[in-house]
Amino acid sequence: MPSHDTLLIVDFGSQVTQLIARRLRELNVYCEIHPYQSLTAERLTQIAPKAVIFSGGPDSVTRAGSPRPPRQIYDLGVPILGICYGQQVMMQDLGGQVEGGKISGGGGTAEFGRAYVTPTDKRIDLLTGWFLDTREQVWMSHGDHVSEIAPGFQVYGTSPNAPFAITADLSRHFYAVQFHPEVHHTPNGKTLYENFVRLAGFTGDWTMNAYRDEAIAQIRAQVGDAKVICGLSGGVDSSVAAVLIHEAIGDQLTCVFVDHGLLRQNEAAEVVAMFRDHYNIPLIHADEADLFLDELEGVTDPEIKRKTIGRLFIDVFQKHAGDVGGAEFLAQGTLYPDVIESVSFSGGPSVTIKSHHNVGGLPEKMGLKLVEPLRELFKDEVRALGHELGLPASFIGRHPFPGPGLAIRCPGEITRDKLDILRQADAVYIDQIRRHGLYDEIWQAFAALLPVRTVGVMGDGRTYDYACALRAVTSVDGMTADYYPFSHDFLGETATRIINEVQGINRVTYDITSKPPGTIEWE
User: Fold this and answer.
1) What DSSP element (H or E) covers 494?
2) pTM score of the predicted model
3) All structural domains of the chain with their residue ranges
């Protein structure tokens, strides 16, 4: 975004590089992550960073051919902060020494997990608000360590196995720490980032209010008077993208909402009412439940379920999008993490979790150009933008819902009767969570209908009905998760309501599996 000062994060492959970016965005600082090998001299000139952060990484700087930033980055005249591997790179590049640890075959002492740093001198701007006590808790994750600091650097903090835990060359505004201030295990890490962006001269002008105006201008410039179609799922990302684009180009946008019959209770009606009635956005409601459910009849393998739903979605979307006529652009709710992971997939150093293509081949198949107004944003920023656009808070704060919908919350064969039972159980469960004021504490909650029938007793009669499992997890980004610790009273009350109010269920269980080893969804 050219109207904002940019902080460049050089990615050396750390699995928590995205956390650095999120911490900076929370401080209203615009930042971009770039793999180290993509930073040519020309690219550096284009980015024109006001400051630079070197991420951590899994490699060893003692290895020939290990990742390095371009040498000219040190000559930009801007503040640089090196983190973990980033510190070691700075020291090695600028004339210091790094000693190999166990991982790289050396004799140095590794340091993993919680550690404590004590100050040798805390009278520098980077450490304002640090060492108010005698030491600071930090999170270490390094096999190698700096054994000799580069000329011009001084030591400002040490830990038992990192004698140069905090170093700085104040004349060049170069700073380096061996620990990870971006993780929550370094409780005062945010203060370190606040100090760094302040001394670098950032004004904190990256806000969703400003982004809204800039994005609208960019959409208008890109689209002109052409028509745009948007695949609306009813989720937060596609909904915010649709409202933003509609604010930019009005009725040039048409949304296509594919109702595959696997949505939650009343969800289709709520999405249609909000977009067609409240926002007056042109909307095609493609009610294709029979098509999807007929194709899924008898299917039990979860991968076949997903592939069937994905294939049918593309076919249905293409059919209805053709009704718009003359559309030149396809709008997608691509987010910045999708972009980062896709870059890594095509040559970045980070281990790729997944490759991304939000609408499974549609642009190539339909000959459309992409409009992706959220590709600069993280999920929490999308929610903030949604507030700026006036979307209801209850809608913006909704828990994530998977594309295959209830199909993967109904292990085994899917039937219309089972889906009806599942919708009712899920609605009761979510109602309970809202009644107890717990919804916003939970990342995701849902009911799953198990392919198991159990004997029960209701009144004086025997029942033989389904068992359901309740799932609720806490998470930051969905990559890892832990179960939510409901009270026994809550679980008992919820189970009683489900059994009393939902015909077809006579047993309720609660899933207390973390991720890993489990996943959040059941299939």
Assistant:
1) helix 488-501
2) 0.75
3) 6-199, 208-396, 415-510
* Residue where the block lists tokens 């009644």: 435
Adjacent-strand bridge partners of 119: 157
Mean pLDDT, rounded, for 487-500: 97
Average pLDDT rounded to a whole number, residues 455-463: 80
For the stretch 215-242, pLDDT in tens is 999 999 999 999 999 988 878 888 999 9
The per-residue DSSP string of 219-274 comes to HHHHHTT-EEEEEE-SSHHHHHHHHHHHHHHGGGEEEEEEE-S-PPTTHHHHHHII
- At 74-104, the pLDDT tens digits run 999 999 999 999 999 999 999 998 887 655 4
Are the C-beta atoms of residues 142 and 131 closer than 8 Å to each other? Answer: no
* pLDDT for 413 beyond 60: yes
DSSP label of 481: B
Neighbours of 186 (CB within 10 A): 22
Sorted by sequence, the CB contacts under 8 Å of residue 217 that are 6+ apart come out as none
Q: What are residue 138's DSSP bridge partners?
A: 115
Answer for the pair 308, 260: CB distance below 8 angstroms, yes or no.
Answer: no
DSSP result, 367-410 = T-EEE-TTTT--HHHHHHHHHHTT--HHHHTPPP--TTGGGGGS
Quote the tokens at residue 370: 């992409």
Contact between 162 and 146 (Cβ < 8 Å)? yes
In the three-class reduction of DSSP (H, G, I as helix; E, B as strand; rest coil), residue 377 is classed as coil
Share the mean pLDDT of the chain. Answer: 87
* Angle subtended by helix axes 379-388 and 208-223, to nearest 10: 90
Question: Could you give the CA distance from residue 373 to residue 237 in angstroms, rounded to a whole number?
Answer: 10
Q: Which CATH architecture has domain 208-396?
A: 3-Layer(aba) Sandwich (3.40)
| 466, 459 contact by CB (below 8 A) | no
Catalytic residues: 84, 180, 182
> Which residues pair with residue 97 across a beta bridge?
148
Q: Which fold has domain 415-510?
A: GMP Synthetase; Chain A, domain 3 (3.30.300)
Q: Domain 6-199 belongs to what topology?
A: Rossmann fold (3.40.50)
